[in-house]
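Recall the central idea of this unit: under ordinary conditions, the amino acid sequence of a chain determines the structure it adopts. In this exercise we apply that idea directly, starting from the sequence alone.
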Amino acid sequence: MNIMLFHSTYGLRPAVRDAADRLRAAGHEVWTPDLFEGRTFGTVEEGMALKDELGKDELLRRAILAAAPYSERGLVYAGFSFGAATAQTLALGDDKARGLLLLHGTSDIAESASVDDLPVQLHVAEPDAFEPDDWLGAWYLRMGRVGADVEVYRYPGAGHLYTDPGLPDYDEEAAEATWRVALGFLDTL
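Accordingly, the structure predicted from this sequence is:
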């Protein structure tokens, strides 16, 4: 499977590269575009400040440019938190998308979005301040209406970015469970 994996607002940290290596070890081809052009951050607030400074349109432009050379192959879009939101936007706009793997995040859904049974898997902490229950319920229903086939996995007690061993949110048990399920999902595509 060809996977375009987007980083969180922390930037392209070692955890993203390690995730890509894990996916490669399972037989997938993986690209990890650096939307922040080498900048990484120690806090969410610092990363959000750069995200806001660059703006949504510029970051989306960078993501599209990163994916464009590979989209004809039928990509699985994937990402962490902000990167998951980016992956979702691209997947819903790419009629060749093979799947969508969301780790720790979702995004608004364009009114014009429409897909044909796009397989989607979301892994998120429970509770998660960035993905509150009412938002997730509405997101799930909307994704179904646009034609996605969605699976949601919740991890009670885990922190927001619980798959990143370099952050305080890290939860080894939840992270390993996530990767087990996610790799199984990718094998079905």
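The first strand starts at residue 2 and ends at 6.
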